[in-house]
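My current task is to audit a protein record that another person submitted. Please read both lines and tell me whether the tokens look consistent with the sequence. Do not assume that whoever made the record got everything right. I have pasted the whole thing underneath without changing anything:

===
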Amino acid sequence: MNDSEIKEIWKSYDKMIEESKVLNLQSWVLNLRCFETLQTQKAKSKLKSLIIPKIIVILLGLGWLGFLGIMLAFLHSQIIIAISLIAIMVLTFVIIIVYIQNIVVILQVNYTDSIVDTQKKLAFLQSSIVNSVRIGWLQLPFYTTWHLANKLAVTGSISFWIIQISVTLSFALLAVFLFKNISLKNGDKKWVRNLLRGYGLSRVSKAMDFIKEIEEFKQDIVC
């Protein structure tokens, strides 16, 4: 075997290696794209299950706003009741806006998005859900004052006012405590988990796990 034949063999071998690398790279890209699509679709499926409950809450919230608005329209200079109703309406309206925002974010999640963008959307959604719960609890003290008509406020006995102020203050302190302590960082506390249960956080967390698995899949292939 002469030198030229050996060189040809080496060239052929090098070509086979390069072709193998290209095929492996193409296979890796194809597998990654398929896995990304599958995982993102699974995440989106989890999130879509939140849409109907949120729409129901929005419709109920709008109905509640309408009812409170009618009550407010028929009030005749009942200052304490009016303040209580307005506060409840404002906070309810904010929660409705947050829920609408949540639905928009869910609909924006797409398998064509980058993983980083999808993770940001899911993190925002998770935080937004927690904030809606926190805001909801701020209504608590106003439900203890919306019965206080002007006449009752004037004619109420000392014992009545002691009880009323104690109850309202207690609920106000409880609302502030819950607003400050209900958070994702306190999610490991049992009482926080119980309060947040049923708001869809577990589904968002599951969707985040699906997206996280894509990064792990990339690392496994590289390794």
Observations:
- The chain has a mean pLDDT of 82.
- The chain has one domain: 3-222.
- The longest helix spans residues 3-48.
- Residues 3-222 form one domain.
